[in-house]
Input
Amino acid sequence: MASTGFLCEVVGHVRSESWTYLKFTLVTSDGRARAGIVETDHGSIETPAFMPVGTQGSVKAIEQRELVEIGAQIILGNTYHLYLRPGADLIQAGGGLHRFINWTRPILTDSGGFQVFSLNNLRDIDEAGVTFKSHLDGSSHVFTPESVVQIQRQLGSDIMMVLDECAPFPCDLEYMQRSNARTLRWAERCKVAAEKPGPLYGHSQALFGIVQGSVYPEIRTQSAEALIRLGFDGYAIGGLAVGEPAELMYRIVDVCENVLPTDKPRYLMGVGTPENLIEAVSRGMDMFDCVLPTRNGRNANLFTRTGDINLRNAKYKADFTPPDGECDCYTCTNFTRAYLRHLFQAKEILGLQLATIHNLAFYLWLMREARGAILARRFPAWKNEALQRLNSKKEDTETVST
Ligand SMILES: [Zn+2]
Output
């Protein structure tokens, strides 16, 4: 574990009293695309980075040792789900989330805001926070900015997120203005809460702010500027990939990128497809999470360098080639499309596991390739070629026959 003394020496700003801490080094950029290193007490994350989603303390259908094997440097945990089950007190009793799930690398926890605001009829928002009913048993709970920081402190994540309101899309301008003003007041309360009690487990826990503002450039700009004035360890862009067209999402990313400081990591939340990630990297984003590789994998949909394939399609019945012939993951070096298709048809658990290993390995590979291209200063050429290849076999997703 790195000592605070060492970290303070090499960072531009010293926060000697704070237990929230993170070091980000921008190694190089190519255009707006950035290669960097995020350092936490549980290890480094090379950016651009994809973060597998481990909602309930488990990345679905894949073991921790396999995540290490495919090169995952950080995973996500979900505050809402873990708070409801098994509960923050139990995880604290188990030594924190790292020890409870036996994951020694960095963990980022979201604030639970996104899940709570997805509950629609099950929640009520006011200045104090948000009251919601558990999707498990209907019991009533309250998240405040202070309580979500306290829960994440108990979880012991390396990167905590502020409580924010994730507005739906579309969202009218007047509502968004009111919502954003409240989200900024909540961000300030989170920051104050994060500066008080100190860490539970001896390692630093950074706090990221979340830029909101739907598809309104002026609100996005105001949101980013206000968060920067408060000063966070990193900045996330939330409220995108909620149904808006991709071009609009890219435009809003551009707006935010124009304001966000270069010396802090930028996390584009909940995005996206391989194409989305490449476009976002070219727009200066550093960190990503998305359920697509795991969820689609469990639905027999595999990402490959030449586009998606759905193994339920009859044309793979006797296809004895690997899912992705260029991939060096355990699945692709040992098994065929025909075998995976058979596993899915027979509803064997192994099918979900092998598909998940490959899809996550593919996303992690994609980000390593992007990083390599940025470091070699050939990112634009790499981007063009990668996008061209991803679109070269679109017909694979057209018909699905079982
Ligand atoms: Zn593979």
